[in-house]
Amino acid sequence: PVPVVAVVGRPNVGKSTLVNRILGRRQAVVEDVPGVTRDRVAYDAQWAGRRFTLVDTGGWEPDAKGRAAAIATQAEIAMRTADVILLVVDAIVGATDTDEAAARVLQRGGKPVLLIANKIDDQRLEPEAAGLWSLGLGEPFPISALHGRGSGDLLDEILKLL
Ligand code: GDP
Ligand code: MG
């Protein structure tokens, strides 16, 4: 069976941008307005000759209060259905309560999780990624989904976990 990699995180952190970066084409819907991605969308992905299914998550969250629960639920679904989970966080914003709620779910899960510190668009921003150690998911992996910075290394890391 083809392994499944799920991308979870709160709206607007760059999940769909990362999915497009990995696919090498624009297929996932990227929007400045949060909540545009339909609930879960699966794509056929490939890197270094290995195939995997990449699942983008989103959904419509009516308000900030409902949002934490929605993301935690996405994390729980990912935990049950994926082989590797990427928790994407906006490293410039830093860890929010919603990120922490998702991280707690993923800590208990026993599935491999990569903590993605996104929006590290240049080297000066690297120190921002270190702030995400507080999520308790190990070393934050700094990338810029928008510019592709770090994405090759990230894909190599994903393959090691499949
Ligand atoms: P999603 O809601 O998590 O799927 O987030 P999107 O992929 O739709 O991205 C939300 C916004 O963040 C868009 O305006 C993206 O262009 C922007 N974005 C995504 N990744 C990066 C990045 O690495 N750096 C910067 N500066 N912006 C990004
Ligand atoms: Mg999206």
TrEMBL record:
* Superkingdom, natural source: Bacteria
* Annotated positions binding GTP 1: 9-16, 56-60, 118-121
What is the documented function of this protein? Answer: GTPase that plays an essential role in the late steps of ribosome biogenesis.
Domain EngA-type G stretches: 3-162
Name-wise, this protein is GTPase Der
Q: Fragment boundaries within the full protein?
A: 29 to 190 of 474
Q: Which residues form a coiled coil?
A: none
Give the organism, scientific name. Answer: Phytomonospora endophytica
Q: Which family is annotated?
A: Belongs to the TRAFAC class TrmE-Era-EngA-EngB-Septin-like GTPase superfamily. EngA (Der) GTPase family.
**How would you summarize the oligomeric state and partners of this protein?**
Associates with the 50S ribosomal subunit.
